[in-house]
Amino acid sequence: MSVVRVALLGLGTVGSAVGTRLLNSPYPFVLTQVFDRSVARKREAFDPHGKIVWTSRIDDVLHGDADIVVEAIGGVEPAAEWIRQALLHGKSVVTANKQVVARHGAELWALAARQGRQFRFEAAVGGAMPIVRAISEGLAGDHITRLVAILNGTTNAVLSRMDAGGVTLPQALEEARAKGFAEADPSADLDGDDARAKLAILCALAFGIRVGADDIPAQTAATVTQADFEHARAGGTTVRQLARAEYDRSRAALTAWVAPVAVARDSVFGRATGATNAAVITGEHAGDIVISGAGAGGGPTAVAIISDIAAIARDRAAVVPPPRLTSEFSVRKHVTRGLSHSFTSILAEAV
Amino acid sequence: MSVVRVALLGLGTVGSAVGTRLLNSPYPFVLTQVFDRSVARKREAFDPHGKIVWTSRIDDVLHGDADIVVEAIGGVEPAAEWIRQALLHGKSVVTANKQVVARHGAELWALAARQGRQFRFEAAVGGAMPIVRAISEGLAGDHITRLVAILNGTTNAVLSRMDAGGVTLPQALEEARAKGFAEADPSADLDGDDARAKLAILCALAFGIRVGADDIPAQTAATVTQADFEHARAGGTTVRQLARAEYDRSRAALTAWVAPVAVARDSVFGRATGATNAAVITGEHAGDIVISGAGAGGGPTAVAIISDIAAIARDRAAVVPPPRLTSEFSVRKHVTRGLSHSFTSILAEAV
Fold first, then answer.
1. Is the residue at A335 inside a domain?
2. Strand (E) or helix (H) holding A200
3. How many structural domains is chain A composed of?
4. Distance between CA atoms of B240 and B252, rounded to whole angstroms?
5. Can B198 be counted among the known catalytic residues?
6. Among the partner residues A128, A316, A345, nearest to B286 by beta-carbon distance
7. Fewer C-beta neighbours within 10 Å, C or N terminus of chain A?
8. CB distance A142–B311 less than 8 Å?
9. Is residue B333 situated within a structural domain?
10. Do A109 and A190 belong together in one domain?
């Protein structure tokens, strides 16, 4: 594994967890830069020995020495543009930003490939549960036909708490907030926006199709009451926010939605409590693959990000100085001399 | 993804499933060679148009045009030696052979790295359940402390059938044989040899330590009776063959075993029936990650193998002509001219 220099954009819950892990990493990963808008306030606690370059100017990172940029600022813009710029400046990028990946993933992935760099986003879906790899690599040899999953840890924590504790939704939400599982404004979680962005990413990976997150129908979980749980219980079920997608290749027809639905109590979904995420991935040849794990929190999310950094560090071609494409002629000349193979692949995509 | 030529060693249950998938693959994978000792008998059914080179001489494969050799003959020798030879001849290798990986995995992996080739074995553990990737890549960013798993599909099919059907172990075994889940001689499954080879592989990946499969204590499941199930049932449990490993880094102490044990009925293990495999992987930061799926059968195993082929096809450096190491001097000369980066990595490991 090569030594890699990492720049960190953002020092919130996820960014801080990643930074702490990098400072104590057994791997040859070096945190060289931190971009944060409130530099002065966080600097002393995080970097008492002054080994890191701190900045509030993105250009310092783009022109800096980092091999990998970890984007942990969240939101669509400027995050998407900064990821694009980082790739254009020859850096590989790791992000936990599901909104950016759902909206711009295909474009950023293509740009990374053209640059001979990597764009990785395991942390954007499922926290520590390695579902992005399971679908795009582990089950690459199958035709995936269906995905059913709990993808929002906050909503699952709220619904499972309502079920177990008999409390109202606002009470359960207050408890989740106290545990750090819920935002001040939980509407993106309860309404399904978070889950449908993640489902759109999984559809792209599993079915090879492009789906707009906003085009996936969603029904809010904010209106679930104890009466719904009582009704569910009578039928041996409970209530969970599920994200579901089924793709019929022969008709090129996708059915996808996010909604609170009744699930069997003893199913993998009924048994998922707290901020757990869980998924059943159905393949034509493999049958059902089940995967579950912590779906939220700085620690689990940092595991996914550090794993992505490790994957890039193993790919030497993604951490060496970027090739410079000057003119078609000079590139061809290099290729005829028989230089590196990643060079020829870039040519193939550039011409 | 590059076009890759695949040679297949062995045309048993797994080999046939892989071959059939390759012949009908939407990927740019071409099955160019089949090595099988009973060539004449299988040839017509499998290759009516005569597009594949059939051989019963391993040298034809070693000197053939394949980029990737899929080893599906099983057993330790000559499989291990042929994998070694294939890597030395500049081919990447994919195998489902847990005994070879448990005994020679570290050496073969190092050889593959030195050759700039890949050695992949997702199918050696857990069938279609992508646990090798989950541990070695998806959770690379964590410190794994514990593995608990059902790793033998045959034994799980037998034990879960005894539990559900009240039949004796020999009766359950007969049914498993009829379904193709059990060998004529099931002792490697029931006695735990199969599971401890797989556990040894997972220990190497998860803890970075080398464990001899034969050094892992095992207790046979062949003596489990209905009385054991009745006893278990009274305590709310059932009986499963578990493989368990826990590593204490501070003391460098590994505790590992394979045995039939009582597990809670509503646990992920108690709920695993038939030839299912399941695992709970515990990480210091990620907590528990659960993964389960079909643990046996040609179809699921072929998914893991095709996924490994796809991973190699994505790594262009592993499918281009192999570099030739002549003398230290000439290699150094190449490096100073600034040739390919995989070349410098080979040098670093060679000198």
1. no
2. helix A193-207
3. 2
4. 28
5. yes
6. A128
7. C
8. no
9. no
10. no
Q: Which pLDDT score, from 0 to 100, does residue A48 have?
A: 75
Spell out which residues of chain B touch residue A21, defining contact as CB-CB under 8 Å: 141, 285
Q: How confident is the model at residue B26 (pLDDT cuts 50, 70, 90)?
A: confident
pLDDT digit string (tens) for A126-145?
988 999 999 999 999 999 99
- CA nearest neighbour of B132 among B115, B118, B111, B114: B118
Query: Average per-residue pLDDT in chain A?
Result: 88
Strands A237-248 and A253-264: antiparallel
Say whether B285 and A128 touch across the interface (CB within 8 A).
Answer: yes
Same domain, B200 and B267: yes
Mutation pick from A250, A285, A320, A339 vs chain B, by most beta carbons of B within 10 Å, is: A285
Instruction: Search chain B and give the residue with CA nearest A138.
Output: B130
**Residues A106 and A18 occupy one common structural domain:** yes
Contacts of A161 (CB under 8 A, 6+ apart): A167, A172, A175, A176
Would you state the pLDDT for residue A297? 85
Q: What is the pLDDT of residues B323-340, one digit of tens each?
A: 444 333 333 333 323 323
Q: What CATH number corresponds to the domain at position A95?
A: 3.40.50.720
Q: What is the pLDDT of residues B176-215, one digit of tens each?
A: 999 887 888 999 999 999 999 999 999 999 999 999 999 9
Q: Which of B42, B51, B98, B198 is catalytic?
A: B198
The residue in chain B having the minimum alpha-carbon distance to the alpha carbon of residue A126 is: B289
Q: With respect to residue A344, please indicate whether it lies within any of the assigned structural domains.
A: no
Is there a contact between A141 and B341 if contact means CB atoms under 8 Å apart?
no
| Mean pLDDT of all residues in B52-63 | 93
Residues B146-173, mean pLDDT to the nearest whole number: 96
Query: What is the distance in angstroms between the Cα of B83 and the nearest Cα belonging to chain A?
Result: 22
Which residues in chain A are contacts of B300 at CB distance < 8 A? 285-287
Please give the pLDDT value at position B47: 80
CATH number (domain holding residue A176): 3.30.360.10
Q: Both A84 and A177 in a single domain?
A: no
- Inspect the interface and report whether the beta carbons of B137 and A133 lie closer than 8 Å: yes
B interface test, pick of A143, A181, A290 with most B CB neighbours within 10 Å:
A290
pLDDT of residue A37: 82
| Any domain includes A348 | no
Q: Which residue of B has its CA nearest to A134?
A: B130
d(CA A121, CA B299): 29
Give strand pairing partners of B258: B218, B243
> What is B292-328 written as a DSSP string?
EEE-SSHHHHHHHHHHHHHHHHH-GGGTSPPP----H
Sheet-wide strand order for B92-95: B53-55, B29-35, B4-9, B68-71, B92-95, B119-120
Average pLDDT of chain B to the nearest whole number: 88
